[in-house]
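Exercise: predict the fold of this chain.
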Amino acid sequence: MISHDDTSRGASSTDSTAADVLTGVDLTGRTAMVTGGYSGLGLASTRALAEAGAHVVVPARRPERARRALAGTERVEVDELDLADLASVHDFAERFRGGHATLDILIANAGIMACPETRVGPGWEAQFATNHLGHYALTNLLWPALTAAGTARVVSVASGYDPEARIRWDDVQFTGGYDKWAAYGQSKLANVLFARHLDRLGGPHGVHAFSVGPGYILTPLQRHLEVDEMVAAGWIDTDGTPAPGLFRTPEQGAATQVWAATSPQVDAYGGYYCADCHVTENGLADSGEAARLWAFSADLTGLDLIH
C-alpha cells in the first residue's frame, strides 16, 4: 500500500473508526450525501460526518425507518430514493437540486449482497442495477451540484479488488444462469471501475472519485444469507459467534470511506481503490474496462451527462 495514513491519536489504519479519521476535521458548511446512510457502514459514516459539522443527506428506500435510526443525530436530512428504480432516482435528484446548490461529498454506500435472482426495471439483474447503475444515474443527475462545490469527492463502496477481474460482457445480466456471488462480485467490480472513469472525467472540474473496501463487517447486508452458509464460509460458528479477529465494527469499516471522502492525503490519487485508510499499490483499475463500463451504463440508463 501507498502509505498515506492520516488517522488520528496514533490509531492504526485497521482499527481506526470513522470518528477517529475525522478528529479535528471541521466540515461546517459542507453538504454530504450517504446512500443507505441509516444502517451498517452508512449509519456510521452519516453520524461521523454530521458530528464533524457536515449537513448530511440520507437517501433511503425506507425513509421512516431511516428517520428512526437517525433520531437524535443533528444536521441530517432524509429523503426517499430507490436505487433500483430510475424514476425514483430522477425524482430524488430533482428534489435535491431544488433545495441544495452544492454537494461536497457523495458516498455511494447503499447496496445488496447475494440476493435471490431478482429482476428490476427492464429486466436488469438486481445487484448490478442497485449497486452500480443506480449510483451511476444518481451521480450523473447530481453532477451540477458536485461541480458547483468547487472541489468535491465521490466515494464508491466496493468489496475487495482483483486487478485481473473483468465484467461478464457476454452476459452482464446473468440471463444464461444466475450465480448470486458472481453477480455480487461483478457489481462491486463495477463500483471500482465507475470511480476510475468518473475521476478521469471529473478531475478537470474539481471532482475526484475513489473506490474503497471496508473489510469484513457483520451488517444487515448479510440478510439474504442462511446461517449454515455463513458457518460453512467460516464467518461464524454454529452458535452464531463471529470468527475471532475476522470482523470489524461498522464504525471501523466506515473509516476508509470517510477518509477517502475528506483526506487531503489522497488528492493526487484520484480513481484509486483504497483500503485500511491507504491508497493501494495496485488500486488503479484498467482504464479501457472502466470506459467500456461507462459507455454500457450510459446506454442502459440513457444518462451520459458528465464530460
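Check your answer against the key: DSSP finds eleven helices and ten strands in the chain.
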